[in-house]
Amino acid sequence: MNRSIEVLLFDWDGTLADSERLGRAAFDKCFAQLGVNFSNEIYDRFYSPNWYSIYEALGLPRETWPRADELWRYHYGQQTAKLVEGAAETLLYLHSKGYRLGIVTSANEDRVSCEIDDAALAWIFKVVVCAEHITHKKPHPEGLDIALRRLKCSPARAAFIGDTPEDIEMGKQAAVFTIGVRSTYPSSVRIQSYDPDLYLNTIAELKDHF
Known about the structure:
This protein is an alpha/beta fold. The protein has helices at about 20-35, 40-45, 50-55, 65-75, 85-95, 110-120, 140-150, 165-175; strands spanning about 5-10, 100-105, 125-130, 160, 175-180, 200.
């Protein structure tokens, strides 16, 4: 491992938050209210951190996208995602080793902040970049670029950990060390084909490398 790395930036959903089941259920309820036929097959095929790809696959008129967003957030918000197994212990371990930690996610700030607070880990993250802070969704590197600027860290001294192909693409575009981790999100099965610099089966395996 490149020991010059001092900053570890994480995706949120799937990577740290065990949110896949809640997110899928929210889509089911959202599209049912909109009268749109939705199936697990469509979800598994088109899921992306840029969830508009699902809207496009369903042929959802663009003018209804804000309403779909509102419904999804409402239904998801009825519960709070817990951290994936081993995530809290891994974050605490990495923090104790002196790494600066942060979040770069496409998710909305209010939801992510609520889940971070629920996990009692707000104090551990030096930067949190969410959907409201960016113009371009993943795999555009804007979110990572913002986080690195805020931390005054060069790409060569940072790594990004994510669970989707878009996460790896974003990391490569930002010129940081890329780490793919397996999650329950459907697109995660393709992550190895995007050649991350390091691949992990679980988030806890980070402790073996840093």
